[in-house]
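Wed. Picked up where I left off yesterday with YceI family protein. The coffee machine is broken again, so keeping this brief.
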Amino acid sequence: MKNKKSKIAMLLILALSFMSYTTLSKKTIKVKESTVVWKGYKVGGEHTGTINLKSGALVFDDKTLTGGTFTIDMTSINTTDLKGDYKGKLDGHLKSDDFFGVEEFPTATLEITSASANGKEYNVKANITIKGITEAIEFPMTVTENSAKASLKIDRTKHKITYKSPSLLETLKDKAIYDEFDLDVTLKF
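Structure written out below (tokens, as returned):
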């Protein structure tokens, strides 16, 4: 009996010595203090605005970024470079089925699938879902103690947003809206 207990204890110690312990932590994003600024481009100009995060968190193994998930409130699309009727028309059009169809798709999501570190900067791989369609993307992210910054380029046509796309409408080149738009993100946690 004593010999059996000794063997079990030794096996337990051996098993524990081979296990790697990680210190995973989740940092919840302060959505009211964080910002997402969008910029869309058209022939002869551009428009900028904001969009709100509903929720988000970054996952760290010790101090190394390993993952994260975010929900974006698509109903909060807001144009900041226009005023009055022009602003209202553009906001409404961006929320319509021509663009983000926020009535049917009120949220978009982003899930970080991997992050490789180079100092405080990471090359992030993620899946972004807009209008129910998921696309794999990559972007740089800088992480400090209480914040993170990222710049993303999104190809709207990968999410079946093709309104006045120059890649699809050769005859409308002078009125085209470029396929890619930018998101500049500042996260506070």
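Quick read: The helical segments are 2-18, 84-95.
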